[in-house]
What we know:
Elements: E1 2-6, H1 10-17, E2 22-26, H2 29-33, H3 39-50, E3 54-57, H4 63-74, E4 80-85, H5 88-99, E5 104-109, H6 112-121, E6 125-129, H7 131-135, H8 140-153, E7 159-163, H9 168-176, E8 181-185, H10 186-193, H11 196-210, H12 213-226
Parallel strand pairs: 1-2, 1-8, 2-3, 3-4, 4-5, 5-6, 6-7, 7-8
Helix pairs in contact: 1-3, 4-5, 6-8
Main location: cytoplasm
GO cellular component, one term: cytoplasm
Keywords: Cytoplasm, Schiff base
Amino acid sequence: xxxxxxxxxxxxxxxxxxxxxxxxxxxxxxxxxxxxxxxxxxxxxxxxxxxxxxxxxxxxxxxxxxxxxxxxxxxxxxxxxxxxxxxxxxxxxxxxxxxxxxxxxxxxxxxxxxxxxxxxxxxxxxxxxxxxxxxxxxxxxxxxxxxxxxxxxxxxxxxxxxxxxxxxxxxxxxxxxxxxxxxxxxxxxxxxxxxxxxxxxxxxxxxxxxxxxxxxxxxxxxxxxxxx
Length: 228
């Protein structure tokens, strides 16, 4: 499963990209509205950093205008994917954008039935939301599993993108049920780092190493020799 970062913050992308784990990014109007400066500049910089699919969402509710906005955001950077909300207008716009050769991430998908329609319309990515389903008492992982099965049985080649992840368990379960991608908020990515045994283990290694200063001298010499 590939990992994208879900954010509108260039600073967050710059930090997490240093870990070497990001294959792409997703943005949305709400995330971009939290930032400062030009939204197009932020999308371009994020795409440059991740060097992979970077979703930028259309905001119109009219299918024709959605297509125009989609073509426009594609001009921001070669890695931009047009993000289109699910619905009759979104399906119509997705079909037209794909006809014109533009990849689409269909967002706000909450059921396998919707995912099938998105795939048939030509979506490259289908964003299946988790957290918002949990909020209304629906098993989001069971739904995601249904979406994965339905889409992968379909021969369109669409990829399932797990979205609205609220915690590390969501990312784990998304991987286990076969999602192709998870787009993960900065906060959750940071949470995925942490385990008390990792912390205590590193502290013990450092403590033991420090008991013999000659070991650090040896390591420094090894590094210096490798640079010659």
